[in-house]
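User: Teach me something about this protein's shape.
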Amino acid sequence: MTDTIDTDALTEDEARTELARLAKILEQANAAYHTKDAPEISDAEYDRLKRRNAAIEAQFPTLKRDDSPSDLVGAPVADGFSKVTHAVAMLSLANAFDDADVTEFDARIRKYLGFAADSPLAYTAEPKIDGLSLSLRYENGKLVQAATRGDGAVGENVTANARTIEDVPETLSDAPEVLEVRGEVYMSHPDFEALNARQVGADQKPFANPRNAAAGSLRQLDANITRARPLRFFAYAWGALSDPLSDTQMGAIDRLQTLGFATNPLTQLCDGPDEMIAHYRLIEQKRATLGYDIDGVVYKVNDLTLQSRLGFRSTTPRWAIAHKFPAELAWTRLDAIDIQVGRTGALSPVARLTPVTVGGVVVSNATLHNEDYIAGRDNKGDTIRDGKDIRVGDWVQVYRAGDVIPKVADVDLSKRPEGAVPFEMPGRCPECGSDALREPGDAIRRCTGGLICPAQAVEKLKHFVSRAAFDIDGLGAKQVEQFHADGWIAEPADIFTLRERYGSGLQQLKNREGWGEKSALNLFDAIDDRRNIGLGRVIFALGIRHVGEVAANLLATHYGTWDAFSTAMRAAEDGNDAWEDLLGIDGVGAVMAGSLATTFNQEAEIASIYRLVAHLDIEEAVRPDTSGSPVAGKTVVFTGTLEKMTRAEAKARAEALGAKVSGSVSAKTDLLVAGPGAGSKAKKAAELRVETIDEDGWLDLIEAT
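Assistant: First, the predicted structure itself:
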């Protein structure tokens, strides 16, 4: 296959093969560039291959590989680098793309903390440096270790290289005994130009941009090469600490500056979203004259005590957000709208576009979200794009906002061709022909074919073997697709009979192309190793709609065993005890409960699940140690206004002590915590003679532990 093939002309099999080829080429190119400082292909060729990879992924989103080059920055830890496990994870930030996102961020913070809309709440606002994240560990004032972000948990040990950066102090005076300083390695525009001039003068390839130059320079195996590269460092955060730097974000940044680190002079305190956005506009205006690359502004809650209360989501802190600069825009023609079917049966419309370059990437596809978006409505039914719908033949404005897959932003009605007709979502699945229905309250139309739908079957199997699910070594998305296409596996249970069916005889796994006796035996052994598995992983692996990894673990902790969980799901019906118990789990709502009950009461689906479970030894969920807890095993309900902690904090503390937090009072309720304004729940608790205490009583009770 040649690179001149138009991506729009690719079949799914050709696209899969091409993505595998591109992943291999780009992986080798990354290793040559970032770890050996000896590029094997030109920057232009590298960029062209990445654009081609992105275009294919946009056209075939479901084929995106786990090792997609689109998700990689630089290269994995090289042979010459040791690995460093971060004492405190280096998480990414959630993104805001417009002023409304910033206002919503502030509103979420206030709601979580229980702050009124007009209460003072300070934030820091600082430029978001477009560089490479670095963590510097100091012990007793001496630099002992430097590590890249890596995957957030494990990074590369680049200590020798970091010592060559002028802005990185070797020693600190009056610093905490343990101090991990975090920030961004970057290259200034003048230094970048000078470096490229030297590269050209030495008859070497110039670097594509300052960020790539900085990232490649820091990851050199030879620290002398790094020393010759003019790298800089801005400090803006910290990880492990033996003593706090300050009680505020701004105070901590000032302390880092006092210790000898370069901090960004444009960092400023802001009181609320209006001042945050105003400072964003100021930085945006200065962007071209700063002398280094930035791609947005980062806002952080200033009070570190409040940061601690807000805590973290799975991958991002609640107390910070990155306000990205506007994505680059372009106009092009919408040639067609195709429908793709996902794991849960969702029918997703995809725009096929006349190719256009957006932000240095050739774009030929864009997501259209759902039929409401195409019609000019958001998920609440409110008008977007001034109510303009999207039709085949339209001239549309496309943009890329931190995603590989572009989006359609606007429509130029003045160029709408005569005879263009409104788009209608199909009433049948394009993959299997089953009815495609849209349930009340759902923005997505879904195929009802379930297991008979090939698109859903393959995607469910991929989800089943994903990292947070069964994570079987040697059995990834690529192998699942091939085994399914060849008829070897049709459902998860078939995975656990592969050795029995294809371990010997005429048709053996070891005789397939790409396999050998050792790799086949390794796969069979890896499958057997997963027969013993935790309950949370099993629940998540089933791929039940609305049940993510966090929810799966909540369900596992609540029910404890597979038998208890499956029996409860089979029994759950709206209004009965099993249903109320399910809804009583904090984090489980009626939509998720309905999805669970529906799955376990579809005979074909439950038969497939039971065939799987027959091959497994499912471990009982490990519950937190609540010995000595006065509320362990009790069902607690909170009502009214809590004045000393928010509802979210109260629920989290109760669950940590082994209590079940419910949203309604029933005969099974053991304790009602009633604040001012308690209404019907307090009345019902009195009728049922449920013990009732106020917030002070609750605090006295739990603080006794």
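Now, about its shape. The chain has six domains: 1-76, 83-324, 327-444, 450-530, 534-619, 635-703. The chain has 25 helices and 24 strands. If you'd like, I can walk through any region in more detail.
User: That's plenty for now, thanks!
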